[in-house]
Amino acid sequence: MNQSQEKYVTQSTEPIAFILGIYPTSNLGAVRNLGRCGVPTVVLDLKKNQAAFYSKYAKGFICPHPKYEEKSYIDFIMSLGVKLHEKGVLIPTGDTELLALLKHRSQLEPYFHFTMSSYDKVNLFLNKKLFYQYLQKQDIPHAKTFFPCDENEVKGICGDISYPCIIKPVYPTYFRLDFHTKLFLVSSPQQLIALYKKISAKHHEVMLQEIIPGEAETMFGFNTYYDHAGTAHGMFMYQRIREWPLGFGNGCYIQRVEVPILEHLTTSLIRKIGFYGIVDAEFKRDPRDGLYKFIEINPRVWMQNSFPSRFGCNLPYIAYLDAINKPLPKESLPPKNDSVKWVYFLEDIQSVRAQIKKGSILLRTLLPAYSLKNEYALFSWDDPLPFFILGCQSVSTVFSHLLGPTESS
Questions:
Q1: CATH architecture, range 216-403
Q2: DSSP3 helix / strand / coil % (the chain, rounded to 5)
Q3: CA distance 25 to 302
Q4: What is the pLDDT of residues 65-99, one digit of tens each?
């Protein structure tokens, strides 16, 4: 920690928000959401090229790895905590960081406020096996899912699942660190068994799951902050228009929608569990029966968190205020400007290229899609430097994707 960083931490008289995670749009969105409300903000990441490090709304601190150096990671956060004038507020944007913080909650709580429930309740969402087993027990709509314990059980399931199917991990973040993907697409029983062996060798527990049919437009999301009483604040719903990678990626071009059943399904589940905190619930509308089926719930800040704020739903700020026991903003009807989209341009141009090659999108339809009034994941008129820094870092990668094969998974 240099002199400027130490001064920032020690002399702030307001509770500092600590943003923890590695995904650029999640961190940058949270930083801007908080900074525009006057909240002093610190970003912790492994490398200094994190886009949020260059935001005018935050100070960037390099920290140890939250999984591979967990003790050093917690020790580093503690070293910041003991210097604070007021207890800080921890706002994780990634599952790895979230799990590390919650495992050491009792150690950190003297110095930091937490913005989410206990480890056991959060882990019910992060551990996908526990999550889908809970959905099954509660008879809540979701994709047909199997939980094999060994290779023999996988062989027994081979005839009970339709192909293609997917094999996905219980803990996606840890899985991604080893395989650089969040799941594998499986086209045959032989491939399923081979992939299970490969994944088991790395000691990952997995699930086998049917694929609900439908393109990006069948994916929906519900965002809100639940307080300790289970009351939702700042409710927001969205629909994907495009995603990257195609098929099983993240939404890179999304729009606001109103689908009340999403709030009903999520709130009913949250209140049964007794969870509080930020929620990003993802659903897929199954064309076979018309039901909205749970895909996952992220119990933390997520990648498109800047989008709801355009409609009066600043969820990181709501979570921050609730953590320090300050009154929450009064609910107001969001402006009816549904033409505004959220765009992660670096990924969307790859999605567009792949779809043009498939013939599923026309080039001439794209220019109106990139309106200046949209909410862009990286660019902001009041905070432009992160966009230019990340753009310079990413230009070679983007061009290699654009000029290379359009493999999307």
A1: 2-Layer Sandwich (3.30)
A2: 40, 20, 40
A3: 8
A4: 999 999 999 999 999 999 999 999 999 999 999 99
